[in-house]
Design brief:
Helices cover 24% and strands 36% of the residues. It contains 3 helices and 8 strands, in the order E-H-H-E-E-E-E-E-E-H-E.
Length: 184
Amino acid sequence: MHRFEYHAVAPADRERVWEVLSNPGQLARLTPGRYRVEVEDRRSALAPGAFVFLRFSFFLRRWAWTSVIRELIPPQRLLEEMHAGPLAAWRHEIRLSETSWGTEVVESVEYRLKYGWVGRLLNRWLVEGALARLFEHRERALLTLLSRPKPTLPESLPPPLETGELDADNVLPLPPRRGKAVLL
């Protein structure tokens, strides 16, 4: 099994960080756009035994992925495993702990590729770097989502933006990179 771990600190309380990271509907925002993640049912409540169904693009192909929630301890720990998908095995754990700076986020992944020695070669050549970039993006996206006020329903909605028009109030600069990827 290959192991990958990513550490970050989010300047928000643990409950707020949990709201973002434990919500399957946020996966598309937390994942780089080139993967084109689509979650089938974004409203499902997570619980041990619950399934999350998604599709994504990677290495010139569209893939289906089904995860099962193995353990859920709000707002501290989430453990999910791949039930069906393109890998031989995948286990992803999110651990949150409060610090004086906010919330420490530790995401650990254990995975095994298919295809024997070819899979091991692909891991070095392709997967390790892709995981590091994915979790760096995930940290930046998390910080951006946390910097926005918690959504509330407005009394009236503004008119929609015209195609190509940009609303400067919705464009946030990316925070400086603070995370650290550790290949184990």
